Amino acid sequence: MSDIARIEAASFRLAGHAVRTPLLGSSFLNEIAGRRVWVKAECLQHTGSFKFRGGWAAVSALTPDQRAAGVIAYSSGNHAQGVALAAARHEAPCVIIMPSDAPRLKIANTRAYGAEVVLYDRVRENRDAIGARLAAARGLTLIRPYDEPEVIAGQGTTGLEIAEQAVELGIRHADVLVCCGGGGLTAGIALALESRAPALRPRPCEPEGFDDTARSLASGSVQRNARAAGSLCDAIVTPAPGAITFPINQRLCGPGLVVSDEEAMRAIALAFTRLKLVLEPGGAVALAAALFRRDQIEGEDVIAVATGGNIDADLFQTALTHYAG
Amino acid sequence: MSDIARIEAASFRLAGHAVRTPLLGSSFLNEIAGRRVWVKAECLQHTGSFKFRGGWAAVSALTPDQRAAGVIAYSSGNHAQGVALAAARHEAPCVIIMPSDAPRLKIANTRAYGAEVVLYDRVRENRDAIGARLAAARGLTLIRPYDEPEVIAGQGTTGLEIAEQAVELGIRHADVLVCCGGGGLTAGIALALESRAPALRPRPCEPEGFDDTARSLASGSVQRNARAAGSLCDAIVTPAPGAITFPINQRLCGPGLVVSDEEAMRAIALAFTRLKLVLEPGGAVALAAALFRRDQIEGEDVIAVATGGNIDADLFQTALTHYAG
């Protein structure tokens, strides 16, 4: 199956189950950015992030026997919730391996969706090894967070919607900024846009210190991050670009953009005031890049994917206290 | 023109200018409410509330001469912003009369949309008299916040969308809870549902102490509020039901629902955690009623219109500090 056919098939299976999230704008944000800014509000997706799309696409692609045996996933929280809810709605058992420093809300929600949560130490332990061992012992199907074609296809449905909404809103040429961890959403959107809206150019956005994809794109070979943790943008901290995702992103993406944690927090405060959206830091880096990297962006329009909103109340209050006004 | 024809005409003029806001759900909210809860996220509308619909409908219905002379409106803030942005996009001069105790954000935004803001004392002065005097002196067309057929028609486009979205989501019978001040949105939605989805029953929702519409519906005659101010729900504090809106709501609405300011604040915190939406108190009363008045609601589904999100950061933080978790 071609990449776009796989995305279309995922879109068919997701119809009626995922939210078609709106593409929102604000004249106040346009003024800051120096161009029209459009925000794809994936924080409004089920489970509070785009990850529900990939989780549903992967679980719904399994055979009945595989679903009955169950699934396993490792995640800092958003993939966890996406897979957990998708599994629950398919009545499939679900184990989720999460870092012990993941936001409390994400751990609690994953459990509330009915998953069995196994915690691990992000710095000392290897989540892939833990996942492989549990999968083998219980006959679970491992659903990788990004290096998995069905997950990439599910995330790619976001790109199909962006292509449609750009036509509706009269957006012709634009950079499409995507918060990027392992690169699954970026790759899915890139494949969808390649087929449906080639004048929209995908670009990964990352936090400072965890800009492995930007450096990999610039150098032409896979670069790793020096640290495993230490950004507010926990949702998009991964060790290196994915083996499946990076070649796609290398072929289709423009240069990566990098913002500071502080700029992500400013974007959170602006999304509160101007868009009435709740974003988490890792879900706000693309908007931060749209607002604060105007000289690195081309065209009269820019689209930023706001990928998630699973933020603890105290951190959100910190953003409002220091950056709202 | 029939009421539904006027709403359809407004919908045609609004196409491509208003946001088709999503109807969002959360299994966590369903559990609290004891039924499926659907939230019509009008806080995501331009200017942060549904009022943009009515403002646009009214300004776009004027003659070119009327638009050139300009418009005037009085409002605690959301109608102000809706009319101001609609006027600006039609290049019409705009004067807005606002109470001096309106939220700072609403006053600042109204000015930023290009309107001339005139402040008055909500308790001592009569905004209608001020509006009439200025309108006469400058040849401005007064756009009333609710007792105005074109405004009601614009707000009614929310009801057209709810009717369509209910079909898409498989919602057959439901109470549709609407945050209610003067009753313009309630009346517009009621007229749209009467024609397009008669199994959806509109019901006004109000804050304690300002439940004029609920008491008027119960008694069969127009009742006034004892006080002119003193609720967190500033957006929906009006002296009495409208002369045009009340007969419509009396004919078409189920009984009114009343919630406390504290319940509205709890709904704000839940919308933050579960829907990733920013609501203001007056925009959260319908969701509060959906969540905390289960015994007064009928059916397996309930739809709550989240009418606005223009809340100052400090009040939002109060909601998170005391009611999130």
Automatic annotation (TrEMBL), chains A, B:
Top-level division of the source organism's lineage: Bacteria
Keyword annotations of the record: Lyase, Magnesium, Pyridoxal phosphate
InterPro entries documented for this protein: Ser/Thr_deHydtase_PyrdxlP-BS, TrpB-like_PALP, TrpB-like_PALP_sf
Gene Ontology biological process terms, A to Z: D-serine biosynthetic process
SUPFAM superfamilies named among the record's database cross-references: Tryptophan synthase beta subunit-like PLP-dependent enzymes
Pfam families: PALP
Any one GO MF annotation of this record: pyridoxal phosphate binding
Cofactor(s) required for function per UniProt: Ca(2+); pyridoxal 5'-phosphate; Mg(2+); Mn(2+)
Ranges of residues in domain Tryptophan synthase beta chain-like PALP: 17-308
Family from the record: Belongs to the serine/threonine dehydratase family.
Matching PANTHER family: SERINE / THREONINE RACEMASE FAMILY MEMBER, SERINE RACEMASE
Protein name listed in UniProt: Threonine/serine dehydratase
UniProt source species: Gemmobacter fulvus
